[in-house]
């Protein structure tokens, strides 16, 4: 097993369709399978964690399978803030669970159902030889709550994901708590003893093992580390932050604005800082030093300052 960059880790899971801008956190992956081999069934159960902090975006936790047709089979457990309509009718602090697949025409799926912190949400994918479809089932604490079926070809890779939808009207998802996938079972069409050579991790622990020559692979627990979607420097230089009112700020690392002082206060993140700017009359710039937030008017001038991160208003929302 080896460490992977996120782009490589997800390359075989993500279908060749447009899914909109998203940010991906920690993950465990397996695949692609050897030529001529594929995944017949995949089962894994999420122990639902606390919602992200701050609750400002659409966060999806899932296990998915990338297929030969370019589809992504992915049942979802999703957390919404109270500015986004949840398909299962919940607001801030709860989760929705549902079967789904990302196909060439977009996201499709079954019924969305409320899931609570501590629930065990099982995601089950089974290839149906009679129909050529993958049949999906989502169970909450042992009860089937959502079903779906797609003609998606053959599954070539499997992995976990933390996905933050960063397209407006969604927002950076804050801190996602560590969580676990338990009782994972993958069954390949043919034994592949060296399948473990395809495993990759990014902020995850635990692994799959086989006791039958490589046809069935199991893990009692895969643990996914906490992930913070708040932009950090220098990796996220140029990252665009969207506030709950749909205003957009462009962030730049090692930058400050001098003059035009409006207000200074303690803030926990650059996201909170630009949100405060958005709510302050005549504020065009927000600067954050890791603890303190300064709000500036249009007369402020940009300067280089090591360790600071600045947000500049690009477009004003409602």
From TrEMBL:
Q: Choose any GO biological process term that the UniProt entry carries and state it.
A: proteolysis
Keywords for the protein's UniProt record, in alphabetical order: Disulfide bond, Repeat, Signal
Q: Which domain of life is it from?
A: Eukaryota
The residue ranges of the Apple domain are: 253-318
* GO cellular component labels: extracellular region
Q: Where is the signal peptide?
A: 1-19
SMART domains linked: APPLE
Name this protein carries in UniProt: Apple domain-containing protein
């Amino acid at each position: 097993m080896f460490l992977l960059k996120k782009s490589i880790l997800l390359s075989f899971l993500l279908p060749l369709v447009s899914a909109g801008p998203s940010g991906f956190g920690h993950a465990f992956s397996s695949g692609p399978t050897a030529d001529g081999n594929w995944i017949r069934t995949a089962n894994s159960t999420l122990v639902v964690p606390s919602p992200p902090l701050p609750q400002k975006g659409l966060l999806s936790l899932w296990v998915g399978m990338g297929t030969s047709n370019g589809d992504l089979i992915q049942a979802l457990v999703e957390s919404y803030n109270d500015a986004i309509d949840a398909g299962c009718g919940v607001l801030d602090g709860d989760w929705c669970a549902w079967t789904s697949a990302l196909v060439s025409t977009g996201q499709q799926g079954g019924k969305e159902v409320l899931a609570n912190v501590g629930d065990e949400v099982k995601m089950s994918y089974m290839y149906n030889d009679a129909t050529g479809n993958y049949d999906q089932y989502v169970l909450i604490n042992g009860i089937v709550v959502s079903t779906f079926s797609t003609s998606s070809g053959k599954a070539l890779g499997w992995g976990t994901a933390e996905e933050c939808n960063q397209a407006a009207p969604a927002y950076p998802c804050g801190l996602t708590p560590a969580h676990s996938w338990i009782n994972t079972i993958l069954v390949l069409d043919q034994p592949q003893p060296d399948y473990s050579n395809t495993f990759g991790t990014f902020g995850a622990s635990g692994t799959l093992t086989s006791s039958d020559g490589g046809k069935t692979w199991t893990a009692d627990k895969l643990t996914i580390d906490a992930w913070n979607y708040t932009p950090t420097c220098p990796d996220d230089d140029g990252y665009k932050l969207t506030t709950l009112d749909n205003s957009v700020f462009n962030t730049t690392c090692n930058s400050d604005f001098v003059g035009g002082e409006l207000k200074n206060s303690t803030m926990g993140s650059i996201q909170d800082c630009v949100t405060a700017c958005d709510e302050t009359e005549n504020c065009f710039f927000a600067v954050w030093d890791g603890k303190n937030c300064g709000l500036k008017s249009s007369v402020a001038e940009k300067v280089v300052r090591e360790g600071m991160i600045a947000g500049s208003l690009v477009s004003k929302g409602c």
